[in-house]
Write a structure and sequence with these properties.
- This protein folds into 2 domains: 211 residues, no CATH class; 151 residues, Jelly Rolls, CATH 2.60.120.
- With 400 residues, the protein is mostly beta strands.
- The protein is elongated and about 65 Å long.
- A hairpin with a 7-residue loop joins strand 22 and strand 23.
- Strands 4, 5, 7, 9, 10, 12, 14, 18 and 19 form a 9-stranded mixed sheet that branches. Strands 1, 3, 15, 16, 20, 22, 23 and 25 form an 8-stranded mixed sheet that branches. It has a 5-stranded antiparallel sheet with strand order 2-24-21-26-17, with helices on one face.
- Helices cover 9% and strands 38% of the residues.
- It comes from Chitinophaga japonensis.
- Keywords: Signal.
- This is Copper amine oxidase-like protein.
Length: 400
């Protein structure tokens, strides 16, 4: 994964103030008529060009964050590239209950030759009784080299997933693939294995992500494979982390008369990286990018000048390095001009590149009487993209 710099739901509710955000204030910029019309004419999820409008100096929205109860959260993305034929990239102990596992690993074996492998997330029943495992949300794509597509589609599938009725049983000491399809998939050199799995168990377990040859049984590989060191030159992190879900609330009511504002999440500064522990060493772990963490956002707004709000996002880090040239995401957004639901960003092509390109997420019409309204959406930092990916609210004349 790419990032700006390169314990789970058992926690009680914790209120965290985003005090570093600038107070809500007027923007000096006014939307030109031509750009206003472009936003009105654009379809949801499409790219629009907004020359002179996109920059990181736009006034930030102050907000509060609440840590929500959620599943035990594990991510496997350090090392991102598994460069030995047989190895364990992650190994963590989990307690009975809900677990969210984010797998983001690449077959990086190229010496002495590039080979085909399988990369599998497995769980071992470390309890004394039979484990019952049921999938709550499930997102898994075929291995591929289009990391942006895999990451964007992965979030879309996760948001659309519903709890499964099937309950799998795992005997004490038994090892099974969390995703049976993943166990069968062949992973060629440089292909990404990407999966987001949210499931519940009634026994303690050991979760591992391992790479081995396609013909090797996973239980055999698990017994003999070494655990790789973390903190390689790529990857966001690995371990069991203390936050899986946030609720984000605006500190002030947005007013269209005050001009453009931006909501900046997952920047590592105003919104710090979540912390956890790495299971094999017990060391403190940092999730650089907060990938896989869900932000449930609720913003209050009103229009005292009769304008609506256009919500757009853009790739603010396009010039950082060779890995930041594109951005793709998926969000769930509340009803506005377009219906409520899941929207891939962009929807009309794979990625957005750099300014003046922006992606239209939604347009929110003003209330007839100027009453306060609520904007809701679910955001998660997009895998394969550099962060942050600012969310910009632009006052727009609905009848130019």
């Amino acid at each position: 994964m790419k990032q700006l710099l390169t314990r789970s739901g058992r926690l009680a509710l914790l209120l965290i103030s985003s005090r570093l955000c600038l107070p809500f204030q007027a923007s000096a910029q006014t939307l030109p008529a031509q750009l206003n019309q472009q936003l009105l004419d654009a379809s949801q999820g499409s790219i629009v060009e907004l020359p002179g409008l996109l920059n990181e100096q736009i006034t930030k929205i102050g907000y509060e964050k609440i840590v929500l109860p959620g599943p035990q959260y594990i991510i496997s993305d350090d090392p991102e590239y598994i460069r030995v034929p047989e190895a364990i990239a992650l190994q963590e102990q989990v307690k009975p209950g809900a677990v969210r596992l984010y797998v983001y690993n690449v077959n990086g074996v190229k010496e002495p030759a590039k080979i085909t492998t399988k990369i599998v997330a497995v769980i071992k029943n470390t309890g004394r009784e039979v484990m019952h495992l049921r999938m709550l949300k499930y997102s898994s794509q075929k291995p591929g080299v289009s990391y942006f597509q895999v990451g964007k589609q992965g979030l879309a599938d996760y948001f659309a997933a519903t709890p499964q009725a099937t309950v799998r049983t795992v005997k004490p000491g038994q090892v099974v693939a969390i995703d049976p399809a993943q166990e069968k998939a062949l992973v060629k050199y440089d292909e990404l294995v990407h999966g987001i799995y949210e499931f519940v168990t009634d026994q303690p377990g050991e979760i591992s992500v391992l790479q081995t040859s396609p013909e090797t049984p996973i239980a055999t590989a698990l017994k003999r494979a070494p655990v790789l060191h973390s903190k390689s030159h790529s990857g966001a992190g690995r371990g069991l982390f203390g936050v899986s879900n946030y609720e984000v609330l605006s500190g002030d009511t947005l007013d269209t008369r005050n001009g453009m504002v931006q909501l900046v999440l997952a920047d590592g500064k105003d919104d710090p990286w979540v912390l956890g522990r790495e299971g094999t060493t017990g060391a403190l772990a940092t999730l650089a990018g907060n990938y896989g963490v869900l932000y449930n956002v609720e913003l209050k707004w009103k229009s005292t000048d009769g304008k609506g709000l256009a919500l757009v996002t853009w790739n603010a880090r396009s010039d950082n390095n060779q890995w930041c040239g594109g951005m793709a995401n998926t969000m769930v957004v509340s009803k506005g001009k377009f219906r409520e639901g899941i929207i891939q960003l962009p929807a009309d092509r794979l990625i957005t590149k750099r300014a003046p390109e922006a992606i239209l997420v939604q347009v929110f019409p003003p209330a007839a009487n100027g009453a306060v309204q609520t904007i809701r959406f679910t955001y998660s930092p997009p895998g394969a993209s550099c962060l942050p990916t600012p969310l910009i609210f632009i006052p727009i004349d609905m009848q130019p």
